Amino acid sequence: MTEHILENLLDLKKVDGHHFEAPAIPDTRGRTFGGQFLGQALRAAQLTVDSDRSIHSLHSYFLRPGNVNQTTSYKVETVRDGRGFSVREVRAYQSNKELFRCTLSFATPHPGLEYDGPKAPNAPQPEAVTYTYNEFQADIRPIESDWDGWRRPLDIRYINPPSTSSRSSVTEDQLMWIKINQSMGDDWQIHGAALAYLSDSTLVDHVLLPHGRRWDEAGFLGASLDHSMWFHRCCRADEWLLFEQQVAWTGDGRGLAKGRLFDLSGILVATCVQEGLLRWQD
């Protein structure tokens, strides 16, 4: 069941001052999804900033794996409150160990020069794309029962999925439609936190593709190391977004991926960059 999962994950309880607690949402996989840290850290920071200031960037590090069966404590530090910008640092803890650290910047609206850069890639409409993340994960494994389903509150439709039958090199950008699969209401701050949540999806997986490798391989140790994100325009995270993912570099046991998110009208709403760990057990 994924109904209301994200709504519950983003419902932080104030402990005192700038200290918040996020609920435990048990999952058979046990390890906290990186997007959960991103979304909850942003939500915690939002709760300490004036409502006229919107997130425009965040820069984060994943320090230790989290346990989904435990509550998570978020402590927010005010770095600066200026006339036009507010900066916060958020740290996430479980059992008194720091798991995640994020610096976030918020800004007041201001008129300025506008340029979107390269346009959105051509893509079929989401209704015409039926190959889901669940189906892809089942196909890529030799035994379908190895994959027991997608529990995150996301709907992902692959436009040009890598082959599941061959392990050939793939260097083209990966395209998919993605959205939160539940209604998120009309609070733009909540949609910003939800956008941060979904931005962590599949980026690290795809840095293996140029090498003809896949993330289902035995002994593969993949994990997000850091994640940066820039929010260009408000958007609804519960409506379809085109997610373009590009492998920028791999080496020294790491890989760098870039992502751009476009709304249905082709407007660029966010950009993200993530470095991940690429290692195998001996």
The unreliable regions are 143-149
Oligomer: single chain
Kindly provide the radius of gyration, computed on alpha-carbon positions and rounded to a whole number of angstroms. Answer: 18 Å
The main pleated sheet reads as:
12 strands, antiparallel
Number of strand elements:
12
CATH architecture: Beta Barrel
The shape is globular
Could you give the order of strands across the largest sheet? 1-2-4-5-6-3-9-12-11-10-8-7
> What is the overall pLDDT average?
92
Report the sheet-strand fraction.
35-45%
The portion of residues assigned to helices is: 10-25%
Count of helical stretches:
5
Distance between the termini: 37 Å
Overall number of structural domains: 1
- Supply the CATH superfamily name: Acyl-CoA thioesterase, double hotdog domain
Judged by helices, strands and strand pairing, the structural class is mainly beta
What is the name of the CATH topology? Answer: Porin
Characterise the protein shown here.
The protein is mainly beta. It has a single domain (5-111, 123-280), classed as Porin (Beta Barrel), CATH 2.40.160.210. The protein contains five helices and twelve strands. It has helices at 5-9, 34-46, 133-140, 188-198, 203-206; strands at 13-16, 19-22, 54-62, 72-81, 85-94, 97-107, 154-158, 174-180, 220-231, 241-251, 254-262, 268-280. A twelve-stranded antiparallel beta sheet has the order 1-2-4-5-6-3-9-12-11-10-8-7. A hairpin with a 2-residue loop joins strand 1 and strand 2. The chain is globular, with a radius of gyration of 18 Å. It starts with a helix and ends with a strand. Mean pLDDT is 92; it is low at 143-149.
